[in-house]
Amino acid sequence: MKLFEYSNFELKVDPEALLLKPFSLLADKYKKDREMLRNVFAFIYFYADTRSDYQIYRNEEERIEKIKQGLGLAEDWQPDNDILAAIEFYNSFKSEAALLLEDTKNAIAKLREAMNEINFKEVDDKGKPIYPLNQLTQTIKVIPSLVSDLKETEAAVNSEIRSAAKARGSQDKTLFDDGIEL
After folding, report:
1. DSSP one-letter code for 169
2. Are 2 and 161 in contact (CB under 8 A)?
3. How far is the C-alpha of 159 from the C-alpha of 156, rounded, in Å?
4. What is the DSSP letter of 52?
5. Which residues does residue 6 pair with via DSSP β-bridges, in sequence order?
6. pTM for the model
């Protein structure tokens, strides 16, 4: 879904977004505080969009905290039910490719966690290592191709998002280019 785009240090919101109930509710809620509305839309983008740099944080709580810090939101700020509903709505439009990319990133994160937990000194009841060194070296050999494949997949998903937007004939506009009254 190309309702939000971040480029040149600016969040661009497609005017169509404000026609959709979860986003129009937020626009109404924060119509007197444009800065907060910008932050809420930015939070949704950074939290949910496949293209967001914050997607490196696979743990959702950590991602929320990093985004809050990046946006300068108060430490005690938390996304409310309206924001969570908008995120869920936004996520519901992800393509199969984007969903597969997320699944792949989650699998890689689990692999990384598992590798960090390996105790190479651990032995079975016969004194043989539970985690032989050759298993680790085989896993390490796979990592460069995994990283390369992940980068290719990210590029393909981003290309798919861009081409879908062009097919709709969308133009890049910033949040209030059309003078929308919020």
Report:
1. T
2. yes
3. 5
4. -
5. 11
6. 0.69
The whole-angstrom separation of Cα 132 and Cα 123 is 10
Q: Under a CB-based contact definition with an 8 Å cutoff, are residues 178 and 15 in contact? A: yes
Element (H, E) at 5: strand 4-7
End-to-end CA distance of the chain: 22
Q: Where are the alpha helices (DSSP H) in 80-122?
A: 81-91, 96-117
| Residue whose C-alpha is closest to residue 80's, from 49, 50, 43 | 43
Residue 8 near residue 20, CB atoms below 8 Å = no
For residues 43 and 46, what is the distance between their CA atoms, to the nearest angstrom? 5
- Residue 56 DSSP symbol: G
Tally of CB atoms within 10 A around 12: 20
Q: Are 55 and 105 in contact (CB under 8 A)?
A: yes
Q: Could you give the 3-state DSSP secondary structure of residue 77?
A: coil
Point out the residues of the chain with pLDDT beneath 50: 170, 173, 178-182
Please give the helix or strand (H or E) that residue 158 lies within, else none: helix 133-168
DSSP assignment, residue 13?
Answer: E
Which tokens is 118 given? 């390996």
Asked if residues 6 and 16 have their Cβ atoms less than 8 Å apart, the reply is no
* Orientation of helix 81-91 relative to helix 21-29, angle to 10°: 150
Average pLDDT, the chain: 83
Beta bridge partners of 129: 123
